[in-house]
Amino acid sequence: KFITIWPEMPALSILVWVVVLVALMYLGRTQAHKAILSLARVINNALRLAARSILRAEQGLQHRNKEVLLARGKETVERQLEREFHRVDLVVKRDLSGYPALNRSLSNLVSRIDEDYRESTEVPPSPPTWINAVKSVAKITPTGDAMVSEILGTIHTTLEGQHKKAMTEYREATNKRHKLLGKMTPFWRKLSQTLTDVDKNITGLQERSEAIDNRMEEYEEIRKGTDSSLRTLTSSAMTQFVIAGFVLLIAIGGAVINFNLIALPMSEMVGGGSYIGPYKTSNVAALVIIMVEVTMGLFLMESLRITNLFPNISALDDKMRKRMMLITFGILVILASVEASLAFMRDVIASDMQALRQSLANVQAVESTTSWIPTVGQMVMGFILPFALTFVAIPLESFIHSARTVGGVGLTGFLRALAFTLRLIGNMAKQSGNLLVNVYDLIILLPLWIEKQAHRGHNSTTGAEEHTDVSGQPSGSAGSSGGGI
Description:
The chain is mainly alpha-helical. It has helices at 10-27, 29-94, 99-119, 131-138, 146-224, 227-270, 281-303, 311-314, 318-360, 372-390, 393-443, 445-484; strands at residues 275-276, 279-280. β1 (275-276) and β2 form a beta hairpin.
């Protein structure tokens, strides 16, 4: 009723109100423009300031991610260097520490080989002294004397005997040299094997030294914080994140199988009708057993210094650490035995439940012909799965450390996208202020057009009057001049 000035003519009333509203908007046009542009400017500045703050936070987060990544890379390389130096130390203590004894053994072998070689050398026999006598007899002129013939025959026989004896002695000496050379063969083989072992040890040290050199170069790159080392560490962290996550999913699947394996028989131990909140007590007990097994596995891996999730455990002395390792391993064995017994009870409970259903359904019970193989398989699974879950600590450590890098990179990207979005919205708000100003002028288009026409007419009248004043001033001057003349 307030809007309708003339109830019998509502259209005319609305038209009057529109005219009044347009007139008011026209009168407050300057203030409205300033308000709209000020609001757009405030929104734009606020969003740009928020974007700038987010970018600063992103830079701080990126710097922190870089520090974390470099620290993790340095720690990993230091552990690798420590392992390489430990291997070199083992090689030196195991092989090169006995180098003096090895040197003495080689010297003895070389000396014995040299002595046998000298004994096996062939010494030329000295020329016999009777050669001169043979030469003198050979110079005797044959006369056909029987005495001379007999002497020559005796000499011939003696020479043949001496020849045979010399050949026999030569063969015996040669056989002796061959035996000496044959005795040298084991020493040569032992010497060759010793030198081969020394070559292997030296080659192993060279390989270890090359690995240490590579690790030291990588360590220097990480200390300098080069872009290549950062890219390498980031890529490695993402790869470890994916692989560790996949292994953890497999471990979760194993834990689920383990849970289903012991949940049913646990109802016989803690009661199947009791509840802890909305959950069965048997399910909660089975879950607690699995969690305790995983915890003991973590402590066992920490005691073995395979993982480093709890620095306090790694910092224990060797005696206390070994005690803790034995205690955790004993608890794991006990829990694995409990699970094996629960897996055995599972088949018994399942068969009893089946017989109960058949009796309730008035069905004649059928003797079960189940094999013992599934029972043994379930018992083996119940005993092995706790030890298998022990190794979850290794991918868990990799997942936690790599998740820091991956999460930092993801959060950095999110902050960059958020800053870009805020800047985009700020620019849109600024342009929206100009758009609203144009829309405001479009609403009061008619008064603005009238104002423009009025200004144009006023400018035309003012221009004509000025033109008249300017053109009339010379005429009056000329008349007065003419009158004067």
